[in-house]
Amino acid sequence: MIARLTVAERQSALLILIVMSFLGLAMAAAGRGTPFGLHGFLVIAASIGVGLPLLRKFYAPEPDPAQFEQYYDDPTKVGIVLAMLWAIAGMFVGVWVAALLAWPDLTIDAAWASFGRLRPIHTSGVIFGFGGNALIATSFHVLQRTSRARLPDQLSPWFVLLGYNLFCVVAATGYMMGVTQSKEYAEPEWYADIWLVIVWVVYFLIYIRTLARRKEPHIYVANWYYMAFILVVAILHIVNNLAVPVSFGDFKSYSAFSGVQDAMTQWWYGHNAVAFFLTAGFLGMLYYYLPKRAGRPIFSYRLSIISFWGITFMYMWAGSHHLHYTALPQWVQTLGMTFSIVLLVPSWASAGNALATLNGAWHKVRDDATLRFMMVAAVFYGISTFEGSFMAIRAVNSLSHYTDWTVGHVHAGALGWVAMITFGSIYALVPWMWKRETMYSARLIEVHFWLALAGTVVYVFAMWNSGIIQGLMWRTYTDSGTLAYSFIDSLVAMHPYYIARAFGGLLFLLGAIVGTYNVLMTIRVAKRERAQSGGGTDVPSYGRDPVLQAGE
Amino acid sequence: MSEFHRKIERNTMRFVLAIIVVASIGGIVEIAPLFTIKSTVEAAPNMRVYTPLELAGRSIYMREGCYACHSQMIRTLRDEVERYGPYSLAVESQYDHPMLWGSKRTGPDIARVGEKYSDAWHVAHLYNPRDVVPESVMPAYRWLLRNELRIDDLPGHLRAMRDVGVPYTDAMIENAAKDAFGQAAPESDAAVGVTERYGAATHMRAFDGNAGRLTEMDALVAYLQIMGKLTDAAQKTEQTKIGE
Amino acid sequence: MHDMVVAFSKSWGLFYLVALAVGVVIYAYWPANRARFTRAKNSILDKDDRPWS
Ligand code: HEM
Ligand code: HEM
After folding, report:
1. Which residues line ligand 1 (CB under 6 A)?
2. Rounded mean pLDDT of chain A?
């Protein structure tokens, strides 16, 4: 892969790595022995880890110019593998924290292994590690195919992918050492945040530069969603993370906002992280890979445009539904509730559009587990957005807030929608990238599908039950007008559901492991085949229907 | 109209701007007024700031992820007020950078836990929650008793807090390390001046039961014991918003 | 001052929502756009084996 970089790109890469090593050194020196210093060493190690293979191929000849007639997919390939590995890591920690809630002593007497430090590793690991890598990998692929243009250069995509993973590793190791801002989904500290801004700007520039080179006059709608994801996440990230560090050399910073302003800023961020990280980007996947795999155009392109602007506009107002009945002024709560309810319209437009696309191709959905992953994802997208709009109603939220119902809603979205659409897209993409007709094993995709679906259903039902029971117990009064249950009573009632949740999560994790195995085996088999036959052409992996194979 | 959109779309930069503008409106409209408003945050003239020891405890609370299971925001609902105390006011977290309202109650709300239990109860509970509450699922935080509290960097922390708007005085910043030690060792020389700077009601005692050694446990318990006690505004305000 | 900001927020948001919705719907259903959209939605299904020159 490195030999495919031009000589100039290799030189720039080396320069960047040298600068990063010096930065790492400065961090290590300033942070002497503290987590900040250790992160300095991590940066140095990462630079060397990338630098060594680079140096080994540094003097390789200029690559064959014919490669510039092809799309540039190397970063996408690596991104797919990284996404699968993060999936296993993040979900393993998810199962672990789930088990800790059922059996709290299932850990060792070490700070890094306690629930409070593991939980953000789970959330960041799955959202940013798994979801983020999948988004970056697929976005590069979709962007090139729909623009009919190659990425503008070969270095910046690597900078984005590897730089982003460095951010994820700094975040996860930081939590273990107690480095956190404590803002949910924005836990990484100031230096990681600044690094992410740099990575993100380069990511955005790749998008803009490729679009500027596009040969297709119209920008396909999937790219709109990816662009909204990139842009809005940048805005959210910068505003919510404004903070004053104690010093250079100290990991700790103090948020620029406090109290009620901070709460509103944080949940404006938090909700839109859901909207633009966990929804917009993945809708980009949906609008490309689902029609592609089904071999049919999206049902209504117009509807996809209408839902795009609806989602882009309305999500931004909805954050205050996280703060119902709190010290936030009531008019802001009402505004958030109203927009959350209207939000159902564009959300269901997308879900319905996806399902209508499949109408007439149900036999493919039946036979092809990859397409079925995407179909189920669209269904869960519909379910979790309906649930979300419902929970945003103040009266409902008074029951659901603070309970496991929220966690159930989160995972209906996260497992059912985010993870399923990702797995479906990856199964569609992997054979294409490694130039094979199919995945290594269709049977294993089937196994993964059923494990994932069963795991999701068990998880979500367990949490709906426990959440509603919990909410009701907290507000039940005896006849004499006193509270009927102590807090501990409600906790005891949760126990069986926590066990069920851990079990459902385990199924889901097993599915992810099966999927990763399948992906890695596909890569291996493809390599062996290529060694025998000597290279193939770019084969989009359509549905199995032979009539729909590429016409050229 | 159509021509307009086609232009937007053909020109990528304009499309980018359109997304930014459309997306930003909601945030600006909702958040900006919170900064101009005075009635968002009630006046509380007697509100005091966190002592250096309490601030260090608050950092430990964040470090260990306590906020993931405990809320610090009692909502304006009857059952919450009866279970946890007067509902939370905005002013109570005005020095909280960031706020720790939380979004999940795996454990109970602790906005008003200050002075509800003894120091010894907290130490035992943090050491192993199941020793005092057999059904609890809370993790054991044994290392808090083992780890000495780092105090030499506390002036920097107070200074950063002042930079974001918390009224720490020069004397508070200068004496931060000494005050942290003194608050948990009331008999020592270091204790002189703490109450002068932070008020007579400041808790002066060896929170972990050992005045000779300043541990992370001291800091965390000091923070827990001040929760809901920085001002009595909530007790004084009539709780008119219940159920609203 | 504050009351003005709030009043503006409350009323203008709604107006803006309606205007945006109308604009987007007009755009989506503008007859001249039909051909473009049809082309766009079919475009992803073919000729994507290499960049166009
Ligand atoms: C193997 C599958 C999984 C298991 C067992 C699992 C388990 C858990 C557990 C136990 C929690 C903590 C809940 C609590 O504090 O009460 C949690 C929180 C969370 N998980 Fe997962 N999870 C899984 C997969 C995922 C995936 C794939 C995503 C996202 C793509 C995700 C996103 C989240 C989020 C956002 C939270 C925080 C929820 C909140 O704060 O309300 N999880 N998960
Ligand atoms: C129309 C769409 C949606 C609406 C209106 C909505 C609304 C809500 C509401 C009302 C809450 C509970 C807030 C609380 O009481 O604390 C919530 C929490 C959450 N939702 Fe959604 N939701 C929607 C879609 C989604 C989707 C598709 C996901 C995807 C994964 C998702 C992920 C989350 C997460 C992670 C939280 C937990 C935040 C936390 O407390 O840590 N939501 N949502």
Report:
1. A 91, 94-95, 97-98, 101, 119, 122-123, 126-127, 131, 184, 406-407, 410-411, 414-415, 418-419, 505, 508-509; B 68, 103-104, 106
2. 93
Asked if A266's CB is within 8 angstroms of B99's CB, the reply is yes
Token representation of residue A314: 């309305």
For chain A, residues with pLDDT lower than 70 are 534-552
> How much of chain A is helix, strand and coil, in % rounded to 5?
75, 0, 20
Determine the 3-state secondary structure of A146 from DSSP. helix
Q: Which DSSP symbol is given to C47?
A: S
CB A101 within 8 A of CB B106: yes
Alpha-carbon distance A59 to A358, whole Å? Answer: 51
CB distance A206 to A125 below 8 Å? no
What span, in angstroms and rounded, lies between the C-alpha atoms of A223 and A405? 33
CB A252 within 8 A of CB A110: no
Structural element, H or E, at residue A253: strand A253-255
pLDDT digits (tens, 9 = 90+) for A275-308: 999 999 999 999 999 999 999 999 999 999 999 9
Residue A245 phi/psi, 5-degree rounding, is: -70, 150
Output the pTM of the full model. Answer: 0.94
End-to-end Cα, chain B, rounded Å: 44
Chain centroid to CA A464: how far? 23
Return the structure tokens found at A173.
Answer: 């190791």
Backbone dihedral angles phi then psi of residue A33, each to the nearest 5 degrees: 80, -15
CA distances from B13 to A150, B7, B8, B133 (A): 19, 10, 8, 60
